[in-house]
Structures are given as structure tokens and as C-alpha cells.
């Protein structure tokens, strides 16, 4: 009888894990539907500013020089 006591914990742990997975997938789906692309993990305002700066620099280098 005591050998299978751990099985009592499996169902609640499975429910918790399932709910965490569902919550994460719902957030992913809503963000992707709203913005058209997956969320970049760990992207803050600094990263966004640096991406804009880098894109501007690359575009300036690739555009023909107007002299």
C-alpha cells in the first residue's frame, strides 16, 4: 500500500504543469496574432534602440552615396 503513495502527487503535478504550458502557449499565440511575429525573449528598450541604430547604419552604408 505505501509503495504507491507517490502516485497521489502525480495528478496534481500533472495539472499544474499542464496549466503552465497552456498559459505560456496562450501568451505566445496572443502576442504573435497582435504583432505578426514571435516575441523576442529578453528584448528591452535598450535592445530595441540598438536594433534601430544598427538598421539605420546598415541602410546608410548600403544606399548609394549622394555626393
Automatic annotation (TrEMBL):
It is a single-pass membrane protein. The keyword tRNA-binding does not apply. The keyword Nuclease does not apply. InterPro entries: NADH_Ub_cplx-1_asu_su-1. Its main location: mitochondrion. It is found in: Mitochondrion inner membrane. Keywords: Electron transport, Membrane, Mitochondrion, Mitochondrion inner membrane, Respiratory chain, Transmembrane, Transmembrane helix, Transport. The chain crosses the membrane at residues 6-30. GO terms for cellular component: mitochondrial inner membrane. Pfam families: MWFE. PANTHER family: NADH DEHYDROGENASE [UBIQUINONE] 1 ALPHA SUBCOMPLEX SUBUNIT 1, NADH-UBIQUINONE OXIDOREDUCTASE MWFE SUBUNIT. Accessory subunit of the mitochondrial membrane respiratory chain NADH dehydrogenase (Complex I), that is believed not to be involved in catalysis. Complex I functions in the transfer of electrons from NADH to the respiratory chain. The immediate electron acceptor for the enzyme is believed to be ubiquinone. Belongs to the complex I NDUFA1 subunit family. This is NADH dehydrogenase [ubiquinone] 1 alpha subcomplex subunit 1. The lineage of its organism: Eukaryota, Viridiplantae, Streptophyta, Embryophyta, Tracheophyta.
Amino acid at each position: 500500500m505505501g509503495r504507491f503513495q507517490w502516485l497521489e502527487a502525480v495528478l496534481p503535478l500533472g495539472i499544474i504543469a499542464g496549466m503552465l504550458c497552456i498559459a505560456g502557449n496562450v501568451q505566445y499565440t496572443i502576442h504573435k496574432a497582435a504583432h505578426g511575429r514571435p516575441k523576442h525573449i529578453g528584448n528591452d528598450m535598450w535592445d530595441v534602440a540598438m536594433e534601430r541604430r544598427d538598421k539605420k547604419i546598415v541602410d546608410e552604408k548600403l544606399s548609394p552615396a549622394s555626393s
